[in-house]
C-alpha cells in the first residue's frame, strides 16, 4: 500500500507541475519589443556594460553570511524555550555551535573571509 501511494503522489506532482507550466505558456500574453529586452535597474536606463562579473569571493562571503544568519534564526527560539527543555538542549546546542565553529575555522583557513 505504501509504495503505490508514493508513486501516485510522485506522478500527480509531475502532472500538476507540467500542466501548470503548459497552461501558463498557453494562456499568457506574449509580446516582444526592444523596450522589454532593455536591461534596467530601479526604472533607470543603464549606463555602460550591463554584464559585469563579480569575484567569486563575494559569493563565498554571502553564503557564509547566510549560514550564520540561519544559525541566529535557530538560536533565538532555542534561547526562548531553553528553560522548558533542560540540560539535553544545552548539550545539543553546544554540538551545533561546535559544528558551526569548525565550519567557520575551515572557511577562515581557506581564506574565504578575506575581503580583497
Reconstruct the topology from this structure.
Elements: H1 2-27, H2 34-37, E1 40-41, E2 44-45, H3 56-80, H4 82-85, H5 87-110
Antiparallel strand pairs: 1-2
Helix pairs in contact: 3-5
Question: If you had to describe this structure to a student in words, what would you say it looks like?
Answer:
72% of the residues lie in helices and 3% in strands. The protein has 116 residues and is mainly α. The protein has a two-stranded antiparallel sheet. The protein starts with a helix and ends in a 6-residue tail after the last helix.
Question: How large is the share of residues in beta strands?
Answer: under 5%
The secondary structure category is mainly alpha
Order of helices and strands: HHEEHHH
Q: Level of helix content?
A: over 70%
Distance between the termini: 58 Å
Mean pLDDT: 83
Radius of gyration: 24 Å
Short characterization:
The protein has 116 residues and is mainly α. It is built from 5 helices and 2 strands.
Jot down its keywords.
about 120 residues; two-stranded antiparallel sheet; mainly alpha; 5 helices; 2 strands
